[in-house]
Every structure is written in C-alpha cells, then in structure tokens.
Amino acid sequence: MAKSSVLGYPRIGADREWKKALEAFWAGKLEESEFHKQLREIRLNHLRKQQESGIDLIAVNDFSYYDHILDTATMFGIVPKRFRYEGGIVPLSVYYGIARGTKDATASEMTKWFNTNYHYIVPELDGAVPVLTENRPLAAYREAKEKLGIEGKPVIVGPLTFLKLSKGYQASETDAWLDKLLPLYVQILRELAHEGVQWVQIDEPILVTKLSEADLERLNTIYETFAASAPGLNIMLQTYFESVENYQDIIQLPVSGIGLDLVHGYKGNLQAIQQSGFPANKVLGAGIIDGRGIWKASLREKLSQLEELTKYVAAERLIVQSSCSLLHVPVTVSKETKLQPELKDALAFADEKLIELDLLTKAISTGAARIANELEHNDLALQALKQSEERNRLDVQRAVAEVSAQNPARSLPFEERHVAQQNKWKLPIFPTTTIGSFPQSAEVRKARQAWRKGDWNDEQYEQFIHEQIDIWIKLQEEIGLDVLVHGEFERTDMVEFFGEKLGGFAFTQFGWVQSYGSRCVKPPVIFGDVAFEQPMTVEETKYAQSKTSRPVKGMLTGPITIMNWSFVREDISREQIAYQLAYALRQEVEALEQAGIGMIQVDEPAVREGLPLKEEDQAEYLAWAVKAFRMTTCTVQPTTQIHTHMCYCEFHDMIDSIEAMDADVISIETSRSHGELIHSFEVNTYKLGIGLGVYDIHSPRVPRVEEMTGMIERALRVLDPKLFWINPDCGLKTRGKEETVASLRNMVQATEIARSSY
Ligand code: GLN
Ligand code: ZN
C-alpha cells in the first residue's frame, strides 16, 4: 500500500494565532511560559489536523519559533559573536536577537529561501564552535507520540544545504566545517534510531542546483556516514522546488527514500526516472501535490501521473506527498466567505491539500473506483473555473495576442529621447527625486480605515488624500527636489492597490502566508484575464501636478512585480499573465500621459524574484520580463520620460536585462549591495539615465551630507554625469516625517556640492 506524507505544515495558524503569540511575547505582553504553552497548542493542533486527514507520515520538527534555518543553527549552538551567549540551549532572548537585532547588535542577514517568498536567517559560522545543544527532532517526535499517538517523521535541514546557505567561512574551509557538523547530525540520528523512529526526512533542496564534483563527493560522505551510524533508521532524502541536477548520483546514495518534486520539477524528474529507472531498494517520495500553489489539483491528471510512476516504482514503494512543505500556502479555504463560488471551489490551501493527498493515496493503492465521487466533484469544480466569465475575456485575449505579437519599442532610441527630454524638462545636472511614497503616518492609516469601514465617505477620504498631497508637494518644493511625487497616500500596498482596481483579481480574507518571522503576506489571486477597467492613479497624480510647476512623476507597479507578488492562475503561462498585466498597465500609462503627466515611473522591484532556479531557464524568463516592461511603457511620446525602480536584491548580474528594459531613468537600491553594484556598472557601462540610491531608507537615521557626497563621487567615477540622478534607495513610506525631511534636505545639499564641481 502506498503511503501519504506531508513535508511540513504552515506555522501561522488559520487565524494567524502564531504571529499574534510571537508579537505579544516580543511586546512583553506574554510571559515566556505562557508563550511556550500557546505555541505548543498551535503545534499540536496542526499535527492533529494532519492526523485526522489520514496522513500516514506527518512531519514533526517542522514547526518553528521563527525560522527553521535559524532553529538548525541555534540547535548547533551557532550564534554570532556579537550576541551574548554562554553555551547550552540558546535562550529565546538570543534566538530572537539574532533574528531581529538587539539594542547593541544588528540582526543576522535574512534572505530568500530559494525561489519562494519565504525568507530565512543566514547562519554566520565564523568563530562558532558547533555543539549539539538539544536534539530538537527527537523532542518533537516524542511530543507527537506522547500527546497524540502520532508516529512522526522528524525533519532536519541536511548538512550540505545548511552549509551552502551559511556564510562566514571560505570555500576552502567547507570540509573542515563538514567535519565539525557531521558528528552532531550523527548524534541526532543515532538518538532517533535508538528511540525507534522509523522515518526521518532530511531536506536537501540544494540538490536542485548545480553542484560541483567536490560537493557531490561531500554528499556521498555525508550519507555514507549517516547510513553507517544509524543503520536502522530510514532516511528520506528530500529535495524540492525543481528537478534534481544529479539524479544518477543521488539515487545511488545509501538512503531508504528519495523525495522528488513532481510539480515544479515534473518534467526533469520524470525524464530522469524514465531514462535511468528508480532503484528497487528505495522508496520514491512522489511530490505530486503542489506545496506552493493554491489551486485544486486535477485528481485525474495526478492519478495518471502516479500510474505512470508505477511503471518504474511499485505502488507499495510510493509515498504520495506534497511537492514541498505546505509552509508556502495559506491554511484553509474553508473560512473564506466572500469569494465567488467558481473560484472558491477551485482552491486548495494546506488543509484541502491534505485531503487530496489522502484521496490519491487511496486511489493508487486500491483503485480509482474508490474515489469515483470525489473525482467527479473535482472535474466539475475545475470545469466551472475554466468556464467562468473571468477566464474568458475574449476582448482581453484578442488585444493581448495582437500587442504581444509586436516587438514593443519606443519610437526613438534613447540617445534621441534623451535630447528631446532635456529640451523639454530643462532639468539641472544631477536631478533629484524620490522613489514614490512618503510616510504613511498613523493619521494616514486611520483615515483609510475610517473610509474602508464606511465611517468616512469617498469625498471625505479624497479630501484627506488631497490635503496630504498639498503638504508634501509644498515640502518637496521647499526641500528643493527637482522631480516630485504625489506620495502614494491612497495606497496600502503597491500590488494590492492595483489588483483591487484591475479585472481578473480576487482577494481572500484569510489567505496569509509567512514571509519572514512573524511577517505574513496575503497575496492577491490572479484568477482571470487581467483587464484595465478605468484609470487607477490619474486623479491623484493630476491633482498633485496642478499644485506645482515642477514635474510630478506618475507612479505605477510593473507587470512582473504584480505577478511575482500574487498567486497566479496555472491554465496559462506566466509569460501570458505578464503580457496581460502589461497591456492593462499600458492603458494606465497612456491615461497618465493624456492627463498631462510627462514622467511616469513603473516600479519593478520584484523582477529577480521570478528568476528560475535553473540557470538554463533564466534567459528566457528575463527576455519576456523585459518585453512585458517594454510593452507597458513603449507607446508614450519620446518626450515622456519613463522611470523605473528596483530594490531588495542584487542586480549586478542582471545589468544587461535592466538596460534592455529601455527605461529613460532607473533608480536602484545601492546601499545594501556594498559597492558590488557600482563595480558592475563600471564593467558594463550603463548607457541610460540612472540614480543609484545615495542613502538607505531602512533606518530612521538621518544620513550626513558627507556620506552622500561620498556615494555620489564614487558613482560618478563609473557613470556618465549627464545621465546621473540623485535619490534615496527606496520609497519612504515606513519612515517618519521629520527624519524624511531632514534626510532629503541633506541629500539636496549633497547634490549642490556635487553640482558645484561640474
Ligand atoms: N514606489 C514605491 C514606493 O515608493 C516603490 C516601493 C518598492 O520599491 N518596494 O513605496
Ligand atoms: Zn524599492
């Protein structure tokens, strides 16, 4: 009989009770003992749900007080030197210090977990002496067994992945580090074996990336060591997010099971199985239910995929499982009350995926007839979504097909546009501007709430927004900025704002997922054809422009960012979705231009987030991402200046694509890339307008003038002064008013100093 398995379950809880507990504890409103008690209840509740759904192999130790990579590091006593830690179990104060920073020590770096929107805390190895401070997988196993009678499957991040994601050591020290860590892993596994644990899941998602020969050798050493040290224990070597790179090597490792992602890596993994077979002495963890998507699976399709697999692996050696941890999807659809029925019926969040796993396991073990009713229901639900009005906007489909068949290009090349724009705008050398948003004060948030609740009518709210615009237009003029913005006071979130106004989007009430720590996001759902319905930003921008003689930049979120920060439909390609978004946004760009707005910024901070994990797929993605941006912006007059903005990550290896977007001006975050970005411009000689952020907006600290002149001088060593702009790193919505004004005044002063030597 096949078994069902889950690789991990969302931590946050259906009501985000986990987040609330964490934040209450941080705020000192919850005693530590009470905090532990609440988290235990949440954890057990999640296990109970999986047990009740009939899941055979339930992950334990997937739960966390913040992040599972931080858990692994602290379990090994790996604590950066700047935190006071005297050995032993890492206290919560230190644990949260590493994650969030303390008065005296900055937090550890946080970075994206592969190609997801989850962020983990990067372990810092330097100076650490790893020891096993506690066997957490064992504790989690015991708890599940004692409290619920669950025969759990402890999960651990594997040593190779852990090392590869850590920093603070040289490549040449990798083996030395492995030597330090392996005995600790061995101790954990031995204790698990001794306890009678049957399966342990060792996560090695790093195996979907390209590995060097040396790493493959390390992989061998690791798993040979494990097999020799804990012979009775079944190891499921778990991979996810893509197909594995070295299938042949991996299937030869001495483990009992190999877990493959058969959703995001379906093609590659299946091909490998078909070509090389699957070892008869191993179990296949068939990750067939999408752990990252929100849609119901087509049970029929999944069943036929499982049947295909049984040609290579006997059904009793199949484990039907999620493609990755369910951490990346919301908890349950059942609480949603406002979605239209065709949509709601086609969704499957974590709890609904448990049911799918159970059904497929039964069907593959005892025949599809056993789930005949469910199959029929499933067909109907998927059919209804397919036939929904939103998925059949022929007007959109036709227009997008036509527009995307053309090569989107501005009517003149940049050099000529640049001259025309200089003649029109007569901007000084080193024009100054900001990225778009100004402080979202408590007052702004309160006003929006009052309006959303209906306490304020539309006019009251609009008047309030106008007042904010008035204040900030005046302030920007006083500060002496050259290109102004309206301040984005009417927006909570740069994606949600547009999603609410475009056709084809839906918003859940409870569809939260963990982004990092206690921060959760509720991505919009792009479920239909995206349609422009009416101008979205024209009113506020026009109003702002009417209050000043200086140019006001219109402000839009770009197609790729909207797509990458949403859950999207899967019946058409991401490329097609991007073009639909681009076409809709193009209509907004045109509306702004028609309303007399001559500078329009289309933000694309999240371009890199959609970059495929496999190098060979990246060029294609970048090509259509660039095309979508150009589609959005190409129809304006040569004198209309298109801006874009990027932040959050490294861009130094993407400069060609950035240039290909052909924006007249890009403003780009610089401070967190530590000069790497500037260096890469040196190598690449960027030929369009560019503003490198001259100060970090993530801190309330007001930067000194000299710091910024330093940044400017450094940038001017590599960039053409005639194309250089001066701006902060990103939007200012999280900052206070006073520090914002003071920082911008200093920025303008630094600009004047720079101008005086040109
Ligand atoms: N225009 C947006 C703002 O200023 C850009 C935000 C972002 O880059 N994340 O807030
Ligand atoms: Zn930004």
UniProtKB/TrEMBL annotation:
Residues 4-312 form the Cobalamin-independent methionine synthase MetE N-terminal domain. Pfam families: Meth_synt_1 (PF08267), Meth_synt_2 (PF01717). This is 5-methyltetrahydropteroyltriglutamate--homocysteine methyltransferase. Its EC number is 2.1.1.14. The keyword Amino-acid biosynthesis applies. It catalyses: 5-methyltetrahydropteroyltri-L-glutamate + L-homocysteine = tetrahydropteroyltri-L-glutamate + L-methionine. Its cofactor is Zn(2+). It is an enzyme of class 2 (transferase). Belongs to the vitamin-B12 independent methionine synthase family. 5-methyltetrahydropteroyltri-L-glutamate binds at residues 16-19, 112, 117, 519-520, 565, 609. One of its GO terms (molecular function) is zinc ion binding. InterPro entries: Cbl-indep_Met_Synth_N, Cobalamin-indep_Met_synthase, Met_Synth_C/arc, UROD/MetE-like_sf. The gene is metE. Zn(2+) binds at residues 645, 647, 669, 730. L-homocysteine binds at residues 435-437, 488, 603. L-methionine binds at residues 435-437, 488, 603. GO terms for biological process: methionine biosynthetic process; methylation. Residues 430-752 form the Cobalamin-independent methionine synthase MetE C-terminal/archaeal domain. The active site is at 698 (proton donor). Keywords: Amino-acid biosynthesis, Metal-binding, Methionine biosynthesis, Methyltransferase, Repeat, Transferase, Zinc.
